[in-house]
């Protein structure tokens, strides 16, 4: 059967070897020890079993970051069931669709999520969070889990089409943790700040689950408040995951200029491109942010930029993690791409990579190729073997038969964006003559927007003329996904309307 790699087994072990250690701190700063957390998970497992949950069933969580989500995950794993964390941003109809799609038998939800659960079918049992759910006696030990048993279903944060439910096994979660431990200074005494939403893989498994499994403390915040997050980072926190928009908001706080952030040993930033100026702002406060690349399907991190290289390679996403194979392949021929600076699609292989998508064999077949996972992300190697992202395969612009990667144009414009304190997003729009042409959309913060001539001149210093933008649009704010990425689909619709 193999070793039990489940988080529930690890937490049960921590309840024996460190019962009085603090496992979680909630939004009101109330604490649970590992003995208390494990006992509550056992009680909730008994409640779920009475509701008909058995091995292989799906149990959903509805609500913001809360110890109840972690208890629900642990309780589900004790029964061999699968956790499905639902987006608290979803509308009732969207929530019902997700619950039906995954076939959840039970939904555990906070009172604040009651309206979100209004459209659930009668066949789904809804349990409102309360002490009575966890206070009863439960099984003393979790049901043993095989490494490849399904642990969680996570809806990916794609920007086009219906989100897919990514299947992650206990082994996927476990190996992701081992990969980060191999390259970061992670301890059993760590306090990780879980302020990114736990229904996304970055919030759930970049540090949170692994910290619990090691015996560290998870500081749970229900939502992101920049001032409170800055205070947390300057006090007891040692590890944190966030997206660039979060770190940007923290850096704008009045207390940031005097904050001592040197106690944080590992701060990963992922989910979107990072401005070099933001990296420098945090270095001035004693904290080196570590840019990374990953995806839900990789549980999550695939690369991390080592701290020693952040100053020299601020636009890189770093090196592949040690227990993960990363190759670049030509999108059409599928042949390996090894040349320096030559864009290719990122392919992944390793024990932390998903086996595919829930109840979606077509999507799985498109992504999985003989032990490799096609990510759809385009990147290029540099001279030192570091990876630089250049865009998404679906976003490549075909202008007069020439293929143009938006990320390559954005990289060429990075010095201009920094000098003018703006963010520039590049995309393609239909054109009667060329098929598609390149458009730049600018979000300006404190200075006037650059002109199209300035944009073309800046980009023309390092890329071919056929790649230069034909149009420039200025907006108050770039549309974004819940994780802070530029919403490419919404941006394309906006550009097409404006042009």
Model description:
With 499 residues, the chain is an alpha/beta fold. The protein is built from 15 helices and 25 strands. The chain has helices spanning 7-17, 34-50, 67-79, 92-102, 170-183, 201-205, 208-214, 226-233, 244-251, 276-283, 361-367, 406-412, 414-419, 452-460, 488-498; strands spanning 22-25, 31-33, 58-62, 82-85, 104-109, 125-128, 150-155, 165-169, 191-194, 217-220, 239-242, 266-269, 289-294, 301-304, 319-320, 325-329, 344-349, 368-369, 372-381, 387-392, 397-399, 402-404, 422-431, 435-444, 471-475. The strands form six sheets. It has a nine-stranded mixed β-sheet with strand order 2-1-10-9-11-12-13-14-15. Helix 8 (226-233) packs across helix 9. The model has no long low-confidence stretch (mean pLDDT 94).
- How many strand elements? 25
Question: Can you tell me the residue ranges where pLDDT is under 50 for at least 5 consecutive residues?
Answer: none
Would you tell me the structural class of the helices and strands?
alpha/beta
Task: Report the oligomer.
Answer: single chain
Net shape: globular
Proportion of residues in extended strands: 25-35%
Strand order, largest beta sheet: 2-1-10-9-11-12-13-14-15
Biggest pleated sheet: 9 strands, mixed
Mean pLDDT metric: 94
Proportion of helical residues: 25-40%
Work out the helix count.
Answer: 15
| Radius of gyration (Å) | 23 Å
Distance between the termini: 59 Å
